[in-house]
Write the structure tokens for this entry.
Amino acid sequence: MTKQEIITNKKELKEWLDYEHSRYGNVSIIKGLFGLGEQAVLWKHQVLLRKAEYYTNTGNKILALYYRIRLTRLQNKHAIHIPLNTCGRGLKLMHVGPVLLNTNTILGKDCVIHMNVGIVGGGNNCYAPVLGDNIVVGYGAVILGNTHVANGVAIGANAVVNKDVLEENIAVAGVPAKKISNNGRGSWANGANWSETNL
């Protein structure tokens, strides 16, 4: 994946939000509106992120500014720094807490990010990580620089990924990160004793 999928029309906005709403447990409208509970705060962030992206991408400057201001306030309050148009459809944050993505990051579809994660540039260049689809990034993990991560990879807690991970559906961990298992995220649905909360 070299180019990020983005929201370009109202139909896509609805499709993305409907799909992502189910990933957050279908948070009720009232809870989402007032941010009642952790999942509600995360869902509110998701809505603001996607609406800010949509209005920015379609050139509606007034509504883009309105949603970007609201998004920035919520992100600053909870230390969630996810730039527009960096994450594909189906993004799920597991907890309210620090997350930092470089503006040039590309994150594929159906990815899961835990707290205290940094997906950032390396050194003094403009390169940032490119992650495939169905990736889980565990608590405290850091992914650095011009790094590519294949589909279905599970990145363990506190891992430091500073080299490409090109084999799909494996687990990596450690500093620097190395392959530790053939049970990537795709294996979990087939009965492996893993869950997204284990990382």
